[in-house]
Amino acid sequence: MSDDGAYYDDLDLSVHVLYxxxxxxxxxxxxxxxxxxxxxxxxxxxxxxxxEPIIAGLGDEPDAAYLAHPDWSAVVSAAxxxxxxxxxxx
Length: 90
Known about the structure:
The chain is mainly α. The chain is about 60% helix and about 0% strand.
């Protein structure tokens, strides 16, 4: 939430949910049956393969640094592919 109470997308929160809270990333296989289905593993592994190196390199930098990273378009593409599979299975 912003100071005025309006919602905004928070990359840090999203990363924590995927990597720390649910641990869907970095190892989607471990979440099969409890959070995801087996046919979602490949797209999530692809997402992790492009996102994790950026996280390792940038750490706690602000969202703007992530968005400006030269490989960020690969993250967006992999995330879009993952969304398609996840929505198809919902």
